[in-house]
Fold this sequence. Notes:
DEAD/DEAH box helicase; hydrolase activity; six-stranded parallel beta sheet; eight-stranded mixed beta sheet; Rossmann fold; ATP-binding
Amino acid sequence: MSLPIESIKEQFLNTISEQNVVVTAATGSGKSTQLPIWAATQGKVLVVEPRRIACTSLAEYVASLCKTPLGERVGYAIRFETVFHDNTDIIFVTPGVALRWYFENKLAAFSHVVLDEFHERRWDMDLLLALLKQYDQHRLVLTSATLNADRLSSYLGAPILHSDGNMYSVEEHFIAKEPRMMPKKEQLTDRVTVACKQAQEMTNGDILVFLPGKGEILACQTALKSMGTLVVTLYSGCSKQQQQLALAKQPQQRIILATNVAETSLTIPNVTCVIDSGLERRTHLRNGKTVLGLDAIGRDSAKQRLGRAGRTQAGVCIRLYGQYAPLIERTPPEIQREALTELVLAAGCASSGVDTLEFIDPLPNASKDRALNILTHIGALDKRQVATSLGNLLYPLPIDAELGHIIAQMPSGALKQAAIDIISVISVPARVYQLPNNVEQLEQLNVLLPNGCDVELVIALLRGKLDGLLHIESEGLNEAKQFSNQLREAFSLPSLEHAASYDRKALINAMATAKPEWVFVKRQNRRSGFGNGEIEVSTSNTSRISQTTEAMLVLDTFALAGKGTKQAMTMATIAAPISLNSIAKLGLATPTLTGAYIDEQGIQIEAALQYAGVTISKQTMIAEGNDLIDACVMLIESGDLFPGLYDTLSQSFGEHKLYYQYKKVEINLPVINQYIHTRLQQLGIHEFEDLDLIEESDLYFQEVESWILAPFIEKHPIKVILPELELSASYNFLSKRILIEYISGARKDAPKRWELPSWQGYKIKYKKASKVVDVK
């Protein structure tokens, strides 16, 4: 049977022999399999696939079409796995692999590069396209099913080729309480079960259910076991067996529970019904970092999901949200919703800097500038935005650049190894372990690791010392071990099997020194809240941090929707207790003057060491140097030194301000405390005895000559004293209005006009509490 994409074969071959090309085609048209084969007739082809599952499965399928073993004419390369040789004509790779190869030799072995499913708009695909456009040495083929092709065509200066494909009609049904109901996570498993039963009555074909993540997939898998069908799971990191069950037709009806990996690229045969939860896991920027959230899909994804039901015959799409739900039109590109540290570093390694590249969408300035600041600060980029030797070391590592910098900052090989093992677990996107529910196992764990420290636990886990004490996700643990060995090799350290012992306290202190913002102290306003001065976190149920812990080093977090509010909470998942004394010794706390008093020894100051607004220690000492002047300012304000001076200064500042207001002179007067501080410095106060050499009048404030200011204030007093009544006066010279306000006194009635100063031509109001009356 001929594939729909065959209709553009001749046109495609003629075009790529001369120029780049943009190909739009419906899902299932054959673009992901046929275009690489056709392009290979003109040279060696690199096919970049956004997802690992698509990368390996497409390579296998295209190899079968070419009737050659996988790894001969057709191969693939993903992280930690390569199946190809030097003479392989078509190699499917993930974007990360393609970028590393571009960095090594600018993809010199390839004449053609196919960027498949470009509509997913991953940051690494956007960067790769910008690099290839600038280098201009490869024939580029960009493909997608839902692409804004005109913009991309203009960006590349490339023609658009389109194949309609064979799309059968798909009947939509909506299960929602009201037409505008948005996708939601509540009772998702129950609602999917109901929809699957409804789907079984409507079709004999397979049912494809789109769910946001692995957790929801496993929950639904358990609930659907009693339905008498083959339940298959399909998500990034799922087993090879489950992938094969999903990608090959089975003799019995299937319910395939999948994430977005099933939206494009993958061919799942015999699907006649799609159940769309309307949800996906999507990245967002939060406090300058990329976090994963649960979101409603865009209309572009909704269209892709529906199309899966109409590939081979008429189908059905059941939506678990309202027909008129206000979905966004398109999912925003990753560069608009993620931290750009990796992108900017990769650009610095593979080009002359990120600002020399032209992206299809401009990078958000705030995210780009933050990335540049971070990378320049850690020494990964120079001032020209080009990678340094450290940057070139960090870039190929399978971890975030800031985490790589932490490893480089560790003061010894043993601590570097320990940091690598922690970071390897953190860098695995899937869950690696769970704490046991069994009381006996928990007790054994606490005996083996008595410090309530997650950092200690993950190192022991990776080094094989916790067998039988945790619920271990074998795939996640294996990936973490691969990360560890790769990082150890990059830093010229022994392999994981020969890991060195380490000092736990030294490790925590070294990491706190390298990343002080990772240190959080317990807040006094919430029982489980910890703060670092910018954000607050709470300990999650996956952490072993004790309720009595006063401070902790937080290495990994996740966002959790708050109960009853839309505000998310940040939960600490991997943390280590750190003492308040260590925070003080590491110089992370700031000394703050909290009090002062005079005794026979001189001026004593009470100081507090504070971190994130929390006092971690207090001390009393003799005031010296700048501390002496700070203490004098505090004592003058309290009246314990030069009694009455502070009130005199306050009145003088108020009078000057009023005079300048009247004269329409814009002058910013100093803050009183700052004025006193500066004046004491000018007077040469270095020791307590120096105070005996100055008079109170030495600290008076007099910018305007008294012979000018005194008569003005006599006519425009700031305070007015009447029998049993003290008032303040504020002036609006422009509108000729005066407001007098009650300060103190037993008098109940408002003052009379004749009692007040001669304010001719002014309208006067009197205010007491919230009541304002005219003075007559």
